[in-house]
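Sat 14:20. Reprocessing the chain from the morning session after the first attempt stalled halfway. Input below, unchanged.
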Amino acid sequence: MSIKHLTELKIVLETILFASAEPLTLEQMRGVFDEDLGADMLRRALAELRDEWQGRGVELVMVADGWRFQTRAEFQRYMQRINPEKPPRYSRAVMETLAIIAYKQPVTRGDIEEIRGVAVNTQIIKTLEQRDWIKVVGHREVPGRPALYVTTRQLLSDLNLRALDELPPLVELGNLVAPNPHTAQLDLAQED
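Finished this time. Tokens:
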């Protein structure tokens, strides 16, 4: 398909974004077209499309995984009536572990246990990995070579965020937001 006008480009983008079950990156969107569209052209079209959807029940947003259409927060209660899914409930231990990883990453299980003051149940880590909210990115160069955990782009997208710096400050948790003293000594042998 050859795109001759910005209007036609926006129609195609709107179509593929609505039809996609997952957010789309600029590269994925560029791959749809026969001609080579610049990233600036796509960003302009997406910005105009986002503006055109202002004031509606659905909005175009950019999250960590790319661009997507989603229901505006103020209309979620209506969606809940149509599709009454109960969101998964996570224990306090799971949420504390996730918060520690998000704010102190990269961290080992030992780091998490030191901060929480209790042992981390293996099922907590498995739950977060199965949800694709955390992953192993390497191992700390100490005896036992413990795994280093970080959060994923999926977590950011699920929280409707683009980057970790959009997380709220955790001042009330005290030392959780203090710099990780091990970060400077890490050997992050990245695993793909």
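The longest strand covers residues 58-63.
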